[in-house]
Design brief:
- This protein is an alpha/beta fold.
- 35% of the residues lie in helices and 25% in strands.
- The chain has one domain: P-loop containing nucleotide triphosphate hydrolases (Rossmann fold), CATH 3.40.50.
- The chain is built from 10 helices and 10 strands.
- The strands form 2 sheets. A 6-stranded mixed β-sheet has the order 6-7-8-3-9-10, sandwiched between helices. Strands 2-1-4-5 form a 4-stranded antiparallel β-sheet, covered by helices on one side.
- Helix 6 links the parallel strand 7 and strand 8.
- The chain starts with a strand and ends with a helix.
């Protein structure tokens, strides 16, 4: 079942057609990776799906319900973002995770339960009452992810969340997030420029080129049957599970380093 769907989306900015997408969906319980060269329209599509940018034309549906001005804010509260930069406030780890829950007026007992749960699941409980200013990059991103997942979103947007981290930290965080998300009902959109991350996290892969979706399928399907030369070029370095030299991908080797 698709949690979020976009139909006939066009987005024009400064007289230029940025997006022309006939249909795009995010199924419940799946991670969809979105790739494309710089300027392909990935950021614009993500912002439109997250209800942060209004398209020039087209429709967005949340569980079959069309998004409109009257339900926009309510539906935004069913979504969460993790950005490339953690965007933490200068307070304790615990308070950073609490902040979205306070904004949404989650009762204190429930808020405490969720914060405790995600501190433990992200392996940062020992940092809970310390200031975020002393965290490493990987620790800060774990706080950002805990903050997003504590909201119990139905849709999660991951905007290059592993970029800028050192190799062992990045590899371990990627594998941890995959373990946390797989088996949930969260519909996730994952934007990345490092295609080695895709086989470990994504169930589906969508390729965007010049504002158009040119192919969607499993990473294996697209790798083995690319629709055109553009897709072939983009995916030439994509490693697939079971097809990596030595039985381990670069990501797994980084996590073990």
């Amino acid at each position: 079942m698709a949690v979020l769907e976009a139909e006939d989306i066009k987005f024009i900015k400064n007289g230029r057609l940025i997006l022309d997408v006939e249909h795009f969906s995010l199924p419940a319980g799946e991670v969809t990776a979105l790739i494309g060269v710089n300027g392909a329209g990935k950021t614009s599509l993500m912002q439109i799906l997250a209800l942060l940018q209004q398209p020039t034309s087209g429709r967005i549906f949340f569980k079959g319900q069309q998004v409109h001005r009257g339900n926009l804010l309510k539906l935004r509260q069913k979504m969460a973002f993790v950005f490339q930069q953690p965007l933490l406030l200068d307070m304790s780890v615990r308070k950073n995770i609490e902040i979205g829950l306070r904004f949404r007026k989650v009762p204190k007992k429930e808020m405490d339960r969720r914060v405790q749960e995600w501190l433990e699941k992200l392996g940062i409980y020992h940092l809970a009452d310390g200031p975020v200013r002393y965290l490493s990059g990987g620790e800060a991103q774990r706080v950002s992810i805990a903050r997003a997942l504590a909201l119990e979103p139905e849709v999660l947007f991951l905007d290059e969340p592993f970029t800028g981290l050192d190799s062992p930290t990045r590899g371990q965080l990627l594998l941890d997030i995959a373990n946390l998300l797989h088996g949930t009902k969260i519909a996730t959109l994952f934007v990345t420029h490092d295609y080695a991350e895709i086989p470990h996290l994504a169930h589906r892969l969508s390729v965007l080129d010049h504002g158009k979706l040119i192919q969607t399928g499993t990473p294996q399907e697209i790798y083995r049957q690319p629709k055109n030369e553009t897709v072939t070029r983009l995916l030439q370095w994509l490693p697939l599970r079971g097809e990596m030299q030595g039985g381990r991908s670069r990501i797994e080797k980084e996590a073990l380093a």
